[in-house]
Design a protein that fits this description.
The complex is a heterodimer of chains A (515) and B (348). With 515 residues, chain A is mostly helical. Chain A contains 21 helices and four strands. Chain A has one domain (2-505). In chain A, strand 3 and strand 4 form a beta hairpin. Helices cover 78% and strands 0% of the residues of chain B. With 348 residues, chain B is an all-alpha fold. Chain B is globular. The chains are: A mainly alpha (515), B mainly alpha (348). The interface between A and B is large, with 41 and 40 residues.
């Protein structure tokens, strides 16, 4: 027991300091303020955790400092908004995306195909470029003519802001319809498929490191066939799908939106890793430049597609009720009235922001924990974080695990974005602030430690919210009559200061392992 | 004697040609407009004044990037707080000139002291944290500085969110009336610091810094006190960055809090990566490319410029793998061979 204490003296001391902080925080605050602030802190902490955990997984296994993570979080929010507020746009987009991705699902077949290509050295160097240029040209020809019902940034009445506002009022605008323009549908579909095959094969040819061809089985084709079928079915039953999604209960639609945002984030992450990050493992510092560049591109794409103004995604109906029985007094009465607020210990708590998001955060925490601790993939990831070379030497295909972890990390970030959209709103700058929050949280908790990411995010969220609250009510310093009111710049300063102090005492963070 | 002098000119002919071109640049640009060199000398040419301004900005940026390259590229310390070095110089100059009306030599002395102090502040954490943790700690320190500078309590001195405005620039170096002189001052400062850095990197001390970048444990085992070498590099770097800040505050009589931001450190990082990590000349070329790219895209494309800049960065990383100078050094032999082959083909 004595030895145990001596070993964990530092952790125990920090825990005590944190406890003292909370006791001090509870001073001078009535219980309802305390409950609300605490739950708000949990909410911010949960979203920060979703960004930070993915970042930490990627950094731990791949040694990639993904500075585009905040931008990906933001993209997740915008994707979630699109599916939730404009399901018709989503239904229109499903076909081209499924078709473009289908080529990449045939990855296992390409080594065979490239072995068949018998060309001179010079032609072999030109071939991938030629394929990619043809693919880009095809896409550039077809996509502008492909009918996608969207919004119009130049016209305020048809802008995302208006759609979002009308949807939150419960009277969504009738969606516009789009038809094929100067191109026959069959030609468009065939062209997209061809562009996808050319592009993916061209990108594959760049990657010279893969030499041996894996054995082909039904799995090699399954992904391709599934994507092709999804694309074709979504195309044939486009209007039926749109009508179905528009008629769907908003809760289910929200569920679908979150799932779609997560999956598309995972797909984006896998694509990023396979095409852009992979050539850079030998020159680690240059990934910083790459991810900074990608982040700038991402922000610009979001600005071009969804516009600059901020808007708020409406909440699902489960958390949006405001009937006679609201605010709900207990969870059962909330279930009947679907109130947007609930009375807890005398405080009015917003059910979506302060109850739902922390619960989802907890769920993800447990799910990823189980994935890491109880599955084979998780075992490989944990081993890889500890010693990558050894895992490679044991004959495990770490490359594939890299792609999976990158997809998982980005998927977690986009999940966080989609969840945060109804509570925090969508803006072009949301990514940057959460990236900084996540970095601070990770530094506090330990850069590559998964529980550390959770603890750090929790601390960052709680401290920020308590400081904001004290900015409103003021702290009375004991034994004096002075009331100190922290000014807004203190909010970021407090967490940054905490980070610096903790890193100076424990360079590996609270839960990080010593090297 | 004669031969030695000749070989000096021969070995450095590229740098000397560039230097000569930079000295003559304002006058040559003036000629395009029809302004004789005398008009340019009297600071009356329109277009040449504009080019001088762009040149000064590039020199300041190059000086700043050079100082980042010394700690990041040569010594291998990844710092996310470098903007603080620059901002301290800029803010000190602005406040000393505006609120205390000090003379310029006194300001530079003050900045020198401050540069040493902040290098010591970074040095304080050096033995405890390494690698990415050092980057985060420095980020934290720079953020604290940014928050202090933008806080309203110090608004009288720093101008809070708006930034420090109306720096009283001494008239003999005022960029509005004496821009040509400012141009040459900035150029001379840049060259002096560059030569100093070049000497530092090629000195035994600099060699140890490179060894620390390559493998700190091994350098330590050879008996070098790596902390002292890192601190020396930090001090040199801090001084040059603060000097760049001084020039910045004098040139734009405004100091905005953006120069203390993380994104300004990222600017230095990008410039160094564009030019080539660890190559001092890369920082200069990188600053030139970065500023012209930024300026050109903003002017001709406008708001969506950062999409193209982002794409260019990605393309850079993929196709110019070690930065401009780094890749050139790797490939110059092959390129030279290719040229020779081409010329030979023409001859026959």
């Amino acid at each position: 027991m004595n030895a145990f204490f001596r070993k964990n003296l530092l952790s125990a001391a920090t825990l005590i300091v944190i406890l003292i902080f909370f006791i001090a925080a509870a001073q001078g605050m009535n219980s309802q303020d305390f409950v609300i602030t605490f739950l708000r802190g949990l909410s911010v902490g949960a979203v920060t955790f979703l960004v930070a955990s993915g970042f930490s997984l990627i950094f731990g296994l791949l040694d990639v400092l993904n500075l585009a993570h905040g931008t990906l979080f933001m993209i997740g929010a915008y994707i979630g908004w699109t599916v939730f507020v404009r399901p018709d746009t989503f239904a229109d987009l499903l076909t081209p995306f499924a078709l473009i991705l289908s080529g990449f699902a045939l990855r296992d077949m390409y080594p065979l195909l490239s072995a068949r290509v018998r060309l001179g050295l010079r032609m072999r160097r030109i071939l991938p470029w030629a394929l990619i240029i043809v693919s880009v040209l095809l896409l550039g020809l077809i996509l502008p003519r492909y009918p996608i019902a969207g919004w119009n940034l130049d016209n305020y009445a048809e802008s995302p802001v208006t759609y979002s506002f009308m949807a939150s009022q419960g009277t969504p605008l009738p969606p516009p319809t789009a038809t094929f323009d100067q191109i026959s549908p069959a030609l468009a579909i065939g062209g997209l498929l061809l562009a996808s095959l050319f592009g993916s094969f061209g990108l594959f040819l760049f990657d010279q490191s893969v030499q041996r061809s894996p054995r082909l089985s039904w799995r090699s084709y399954a992904g391709f066939v599934v994507l092709l079928l999804v694309g074709l079915i979504a195309f044939i039953f486009n209007s039926a799908l749109t009508a179905f999604l528009l008629g769907l209960n908003a809760n289910w639609l929200f569920f679908i939106a979150v799932i779609v945002a997560t999956l598309s984030g995972a797909g984006l992450g896998a694509l990023m890793e396979a095409t852009l990050i992979r050539p850079l493992y030998s020159r680690p510092i240059y990934q910083l430049m790459l991810t900074i560049g990608l982040s700038a591109i991402g922000v610009q794409i979001v600005q071009a597609v969804w516009g600059r103004p901020e808007f708020v995604m409406p909440k699902p109906t489960l958390f949006n009720g405001s009937g006679a029985s609201c605010p709900a007094t207990s969870f059962s009465s909330w279930w009947q009235g679907n109130c947007s607020t609930i009375l807890l210990l005398g405080g009015r708590v917003r059910t979506y922001n302060e109850i739902f998001i922390p619960l989802i955060g907890l769920l993800v925490l447990v799910a990823v924990w189980i994935l890491l601790q109880r599955t084979r993939l998780g075992m490989i990831i944990r081993a890889g974080v500890q010693d990558r070379e050894m895992v490679e030497a044991l004959g495990i295909n770490v490359r594939r695990v890299f792609t999976m972890v990158f997809a998982l990390g980005v998927g977690l970030a986009t999940l966080g974005g989609a969840l945060a959209a109804p509570s925090m709103g969508l803006s072009n700058a949301m990514g940057e602030s959460f990236l900084l929050n996540a970095l601070i949280a990770l530094a506090i908790g330990g850069l590559t430690s998964y529980p550390g990411a959770a603890l750090g995010s929790l601390l960052v969220g709680l401290i920020q919210q308590f400081i904001i609250k004290y900015g409103q009510i003021g702290i009375s310093i004991p034994f004096t009559s002075i009331v100190l009111k922290p000014t807004p710049p203190i909010v970021p300063a407090s967490t940054v200061l905490l980070m610096v102090i903790i890193l100076l005492i424990m360079p590996n963070g609270l839960l990080g392992k010593k090297e | 004697m004669q031969k030695k002098a000749f070989s000096f000119f021969h070995n450095n002919r590229a740098s000397l040609i560039v230097l000569f071109a930079l000295v003559l640049l304002p006058f040559i640009v003036g000629l395009f407009e029809g302004a004789s060199p005398i008009v340019v000398w009297e600071n009356q040419g329109g277009i040449s004044k504009f080019v001088e301004g762009l040149g000064i900005e590039i020199f300041i940026l190059a000086l700043y990037a050079l100082s980042y390259d010394l700690i990041f590229g040569v010594t291998g310390l990844l710092s996310f707080g470098h903007a603080m070095f620059f901002a301290v110089g800029a803010y000190l100059t602005g406040i000393a000139l505006k609120s205390f009306a000090l003379s310029l030599p006194a300001v530079i002395g003050l900045v020198f002291l401050a540069a040493i102090l902040q290098a010591l502040l970074f040095g304080l954490v050096l033995p405890r944290v390494k690698g990415i943790t050092f980057a985060l700690v420095t980020l934290g320190m720079a953020s604290m500085f940014h928050i202090i500078v933008t806080s309203s309590e110090l608004g009288n001195y720093t101008g809070a969110d708006v930034g420090l405005q109306g720096v009283m620039v001494p008239s003999f170096i005022n960029p509005a009336n004496e821009r040509l002189r400012f141009y040459f001052v900035a150029l001379v400062v840049l060259i002096l610091i560059y030569l100093l850095y070049q000497r530092f990197v090629n000195s035994p001390t600099g060699r140890v810094c490179v060894a620390i970048r390559e493998n700190e444990g091994r350098a330590k085992m050879l008996g070098y006190n790596t902390f002292a070498f890192k601190l020396a590099a930090l001090m040199l770097s801090s001084f040059a960055a603060a000097l760049a800040g001084v020039l910045h505050a004098l040139y734009q009589p405004i100091v905005s809090p953006n120069v203390a931001d993380l994104s300004f450190t990222v600017t230095a990082l990008l410039i160094v990566l564009i030019g080539g990590v660890g190559t001092l000349s890369g920082a200069l070329i990188g600053a030139f490319v970065y500023r012209l790219l930024d300026f050109g895209l903003r002017r001709y494309i406008g708001e969506n410029a950062s999409f193209i800049t982002g794409t260019i960065y990605v393309a850079f990383v993929l196709f110019i793998p070690y930065g401009m100078v780094g890749t050139w050094r790797l490939k110059s032999f092959r390129v030279a061979q290719g040229w020779r082959r081409l010329l030979a083909a023409f001859k026959t």
